[in-house]
Structure of Shikimate dehydrogenase (NADP(+)):
Amino acid sequence: TDRYAVVGNPIAHSKSPRIHAMFAEQTGADLVYTSVLGEVGRFAETAEAFRAAGGRGLNVTVPFKQDAWVYADRLSDRGELAGAVNTLSFTAQGIIGDNTDGVGLVRDLEVNHGCTLAGRRILLLGAGGAARGVLQPLLLAGPGAVTIANRTFDRAAELAIRFGGFGYITASTYHELAGEHFDVVINATAAGLDDSVPPLPDTVLADNAWCYDLMYADQPTAFVRWARAHGAGHALDGLGMLVEQAAESFFIWRGVRPDTASVMQALRAAR
Ligand code: ATR
């Protein structure tokens, strides 16, 4: 039996053990996936203990993704660029770090919901770890342009430079968005934690726009409510991304792609 776990703090409400248990059952994989409460400032010790006990891989969530990036011996390109790791594999070749969040987001939008990103005007809200984690896969989807808006403009400008080689990308304040329209608006800010939304102009959504909140909750998030109130064609929270990033991690570890639709359905029914 192969052992995997998710490390975070807090961790009690993580859906990852349920998701991976469903993937394992579907694919007949002989594995156990648990959750581990990490101690802030001691991520490496926690990960080492799990590895020493024979663990095969870890998912990493808030607030340890940057610690995991430092801890890994080797990084995938997307993990390196993200500056954050959500998937660790303990292999004979060492500890390999990857980040499946961006792929999870793009797959949920494009495959599960039929949103075409190619050629679209995308607005990414926020310039912290969550934004950085999804930028490369987002740009590889071929949008017409990506604008990063952030309260602290300099952080948006830094990301625009860092990812400029992958596509047309600019930085903005919220204020400067007045008069602009976007086809896809992705919320990667932490504003939702206080049940608030960034200060967006009322007119920022193009006709039939897509709004996507990286956050999810049992109730509609503040950004999903904002999107509905402002006439978005589609308002999605991050539950689909959660399942898709998990599927990509499972694929990295097991070489098998689980079916995500049935898992998504089970999670929605349990809400
Ligand atoms: P995370 O890992 O969740 O991205 P982070 O790196 O601390 O966490 O980044 C939080 C992001 O949410 C930042 O873009 C932050 O804006 P600043 O860079 O200006 O701080 C944004 N944010 C947090 N609270 C916000 C709020 N109430 N309104 C708008 N943006 C907010």
User: Anything to note?
Assistant: The mean pLDDT is 97. The domain at 102-239 is CATH 3.40.50.720 (Rossmann fold). The pocket of 2'-monophosphoadenosine-5'-diphosphate is lined by residues 126-131, 150-152, 155, 189-191, 196, 198 (CB under 6 Å). The first helix runs from residue 16 to 27.
